[in-house]
Design goal:
By secondary structure, the protein is mainly α. It has a single domain, classed as dinb family like domain (Four Helix Bundle (Hemerythrin (Met), subunit A)), CATH 1.20.120. The termini are far apart.
């Protein structure tokens, strides 16, 4: 494996471990709880990641183009994914693992080529974007899930689950 690809694979592994920690031991109430009626819940976020993880894998393994417009066919494909948290989390793990396995065997020029193909509609993305886009995306939504879980607990008078003793967040 190229050193550059090894570094990005490590970043993806780290993002995945952090994400798994964020969704560890969720209660049924937490999965569908929303801090506001119009806000996303954890179930919606995991479904979103599961859908886009398939796109990342297809782009890396087959050179598929990342969707940039929502066609009727794409809308049908998206709508076919149920709001089943356990099923989507299991599928997300399967897809993310396959992405990592593929990434570990990739060469830098393959990643560059697949990035140009996948993101042809976005000509200004970095040349290795496909290798780390999923890690950044997953890490961001993992942090969002941690925030939702902390808010869920705080609205019930409980201590935050993530970073409960951080002195930069005063109890006020």
């Amino acid at each position: 494996m190229d050193d550059a690809v090894a570094i990005v694979a490590e970043m993806n592994e780290w993002a995945w471990r952090r994400f798994k920690n964020a969704v560890h031991e969720l209660s049924d109430d937490e999965i569908d709880w929303r801090p506001l009626p119009e806000a996303n819940n954890i179930n919606v976020i995991v479904r979103h990641l599961r859908i886009e993880s398939q796109w990342h894998l297809d782009s890396l393994t087959r050179g598929d183009v990342m969707p940039s417009e929502t066609s009727a066919a794409l809308r049908e494909q998206i709508d076919a994914v149920p709001f089943d948290f356990e099923q989507n989390l299991a599928k997300l793990e399967e897809l993310f693992t396959a992405f990592l396995d593929t990434l570990r065997t990739a060469r830098v020029h393959d990643v560059q080529h697949r990035t140009r193909t996948a993101y042809a509609a976005w000509p200004h993305v970095p040349v290795h974007f496909l290798a780390y886009h999923q890690a950044v995306h997953t890490a961001g939504h993992g942090a969002q899930i941690q925030t939702i879980r902390n808010l869920y607990r705080k609205t019930r008078g409980e201590q935050a689950l993530f970073f409960p003793e951080n002195p930069t967040y005063p109890d006020r």
